[in-house]
From TrEMBL:
PANTHER family: 4-AMINO-5-HYDROXYMETHYL-2-METHYLPYRIMIDINE PHOSPHATE SYNTHASE THI11-RELATED, THIAMINE BIOSYNTHESIS PROTEIN HI_0357-RELATED. InterPro entries: NMT1/THI5, SsuA/THI5. The keyword Signal applies. GO terms for biological process: thiamine biosynthetic process. Keywords: Signal. Residues 38-239 form the SsuA/THI5-like domain. Residues 1-24 form the signal peptide. This is NitT/TauT family transport system substrate-binding protein. The keyword Signal applies.
Length: 334
C-alpha cells in the first residue's frame, strides 16, 4: 500500500504532467464603455485565444452601450473591472468613490475633429476659421474649453450640438464635427463619398489616457495578484490582437454586437496602428498599458486650467502605476 506521502507526490506529479485536476480559475468580469468593437479587441482576444485562462482567470466581458451602467456596477461591486477614463477617475476622487485605474490601454484618446477636404483646413488651428463645430456636451465642457484656452480663434458661437448624425456636417462645408478616429471617418466616407480631414486631439496636445482598466481600491487591497494577472493577460491579448490572428476575437465581437462589420473592424485596427493609439510615448519602450505620473499630472493640469477640476484635488488617488510599464507582452509583437 502506498503511503500518504507517496500518494501526495503522485498527485503532484500528475498535476505537473498536465493529467491531474486543473486548478480553479479566478472568475472576474470586465465592463466595457460601449458596444463591442475592435477598440475592445484585445480583451476579446485574451478570451478567445486562452490568454486569460493561461493566467488563471475566467473572464466575462460585459459590453456597454446606450443603456448600460457598467461604471455604476463597478461602484456597486457587481463587476470587477471597468473601461474607465482619467476624468471619470478624478471625478470619483472628488466624490469620495474609491475607484482607481491600473492600466491605460490607449496612450492617445481617439477623439477627433473632422473637416471637409477642400475647406482650407490644413492644420488643427485652421478649425478656428470654421463657422460651426458639431460636438456633444461632454466635448463641449472639456476639450472645446481646452481648445479655447490654448488656441486663438475658437469661440462659443461655433458650437452646435452633435446628435450622432453626420448629415448636418456633410451638408455644411464650413463646419467641423467631433468623432472617434476609428468610427465616424469611415461612416462619413461611406455616406458622402469623400474622406474627411481628420485631426486627432491628442496630436494637438490634448493628453488624456483612454480605454483604461479601472477597478476599486478594495480589489487592489484584497486581490492584488488577480489585478496583476488581469492587467498582464489583457496586455498580451492586445499584442496578439494587433499583430496576430484575431479572427476568433472578431467573431466574439460580432456575436456581442451583430451590427459590427468586418470592414469596420479592419478600418479600426488600421487606424489604431497608424496613429499610435496603443503604442506611442512610454508604451513604445515599456509596453502597452503604461501610465506615468508626469502624463497623468499633465491632464490634471489641463482640467484645472478649464475649471473642470479643483486644483487642490488629490488626483493621485485616481490611479496607480505599479501594475504596468514592465514590458509585458512586447515579445509577442511581430
Amino acid at each position: 500500500m502506498m503511503s500518504k506521502t507517496g500518494l501526495a507526490a503522485l498527485a503532484m506529479g500528475l498535476m505537473l504532467a498536465g493529467t491531474g485536476p486543473a486548478l480553479a480559475l479566478d472568475e472576474v468580469s470586465y465592463g466595457t464603455n460601449w458596444l463591442a468593437q475592435a477598440e475592445h479587441g484585445g480583451f476579446y482576444q485574451a478570451v478567445a485565444d486562452g490568454t486569460y485562462e493561461k493566467h488563471g482567470l475566467k473572464v466575462k466581458i460585459i459590453q456597454g452601450g446606450p443603456n448600460a451602467a457598467n461604471r455604476s456596477l463597478l461602484i456597486a461591486g457587481k463587476v470587477d473591472f471597468y473601461m474607465g477614463g482619467p476624468l471619470g477617475d478624478m471625478d470619483a476622487v472628488k466624490e469620495g468613490i474609491p475607484m482607481i485605474s491600473v492600466a491605460s490601454i490607449f496612450q492617445k484618446d481617439p477623439q477627433v475633429l473632422l473637416a471637409h477636404p477642400n475647406a482650407g483646413v490644413e492644420k488643427f488651428e485652421d478649425l478656428a476659421k470654421l463657422d460651426t463645430i458639431f460636438m456633444g456636451k461632454d466635448g463641449y465642457v472639456t476639450y472645446f474649453e481646452w481648445m479655447k484656452k490654448n488656441f486663438k480663434g475658437f469661440k462659443e458661437e461655433q458650437y452646435k450640438p452633435y446628435t450622432f448624425n453626420p448629415a448636418p456636417f456633410i451638408a455644411d462645408k464650413k463646419s467641423a464635427q467631433q468623432g472617434y478616429l476609428t468610427s465616424e471617418p469611415y461612416e462619413i466616407e461611406k455616406q458622402a463619398g469623400w474622406a474627411p480631414k481628420v485631426f486627432l486631439l491628442a496630436d494637438a496636445g490634448y493628453s488624456p489616457y483612454s480605454t483604461m482598466i479601472t477597478t476599486t481600491q478594495g480589489m487592489i487591497d484584497k486581490k492584488p495578484d488577480v489585478v496583476q494577472r488581469f492587467v498582464d493577460a489583457s496586455i498580451e491579448g492586445w499584442y496578439n490582437y494587433i499583430y496576430g490572428d484575431n479572427k476568433k476575437a472578431n467573431e466574439l465581437i460580432k456575436k456581442d454586437n451583430p451590427e459590427m462589420t468586418d470592414g469596420q473592424i479592419a478600418y479600426s485596427i488600421k487606424k489604431m496602428k497608424e496613429y499610435g493609439i496603443l503604442e506611442s510615448g512610454e508604451a513604445l519602450t515599456k509596453g502597452i498599458g503604461c501610465m506615468t505620473d508626469a502624463r497623468y499630472k499633465q491632464f490634471f493640469d489641463e482640467m484645472v486650467q478649464i475649471n473642470a477640476l479643483p486644483k487642490d484635488l488629490d488626483y493621485k488617488k485616481a490611479y496607480t502605476t505599479k501594475f504596468v510599464c514592465k514590458g509585458v507582452g512586447m515579445a509577442l509583437k511581430k
